[in-house]
Here is the input.
Amino acid sequence: MREKHKSSIHHEPVNKEAFKMLATEIGLLAACRKVGLPIPTAKAWSRRGNWKLPRRHGGRPPKRFEVSSKYPVADALVETHKDLEAKTKTGLATAAAKAADHVQSLDGASTFGQSNKLRDLAASAARIFGWDKGPQTNVQVNTLKVTQEQLAEIRALRDTGELP
Here is the structure.
């Protein structure tokens, strides 16, 4: 008859508590090799007993990557939008200021024909500088329509000195 093949390693009973102390000191795999205990058995004991074993024994420490955000690409895009917004606000504010200086240098009669442009300028400035945020801010531009006859009448009154 054939004899069954027996393992050459003779397994003696292992004290779990002593093995746990050894595994805590030198690591689970090293303790298994030293004692001759199968690794799956030791892992099962460790799992069931909730042993607090060291994660790694020796070797290189695990890699850690410092990331400021979970979505770095989205953060970069938001930062780019903020930069563009600041540049756009600066450019529009400069243009609005130049237009306002130009309007200020005009005499009253020449601004009457450009009232819609003045209204648009005021509305743009309100959006740029945030005047339209928070409590409701209204920008109102009043226009005055004067006929040629009324204009001639005003000039005549001014020439006679009856107008203050």
Notes: The chain has two domains: 16-49, 73-160. The helical segments are 16-26, 28-35, 39-49, 72-105, 108-112, 115-128, 148-160.
